[in-house]
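Need tokens for this chain, all 131 residues.
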Amino acid sequence: MIGVDTNVLVRFLVEDDVQQSKRAGQLFRRALAKGEQLFISDVVLCEVVWVLEGAYRVPRGEIAALLLDLARAKQVELGDADIVHRALTAFQAGNGDFADYVIRERALGAGCSALVTFEKKLWAEAGFEKV
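Here are the structure tokens for all 131 residues:
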């Protein structure tokens, strides 16, 4: 298994640098052909979402759909896949940042009753509470 960093995944998804995008694509194709796994952590996904929203202005619905498709790829193994899937689903429908939902899912998984936050936009969503 090989870990994939944020910059490699962004090049693969966005194809904005010809040489780096080509190498990233080759990595994913080679892993598929050889039956190898590429590990993508939830932290990398948080950074990817931040880059796609901020630098590339990709709408959140498109980002969620893209990452859900990526999660289904045979050569991809997500760190904490259940957390990532729940966070992506919440991100797609909710008001928070993807990282907010990852943090909430980690807190709930650790036995917390809720995640307290100053983010007013999250107070009405399940698992979040006002401080």
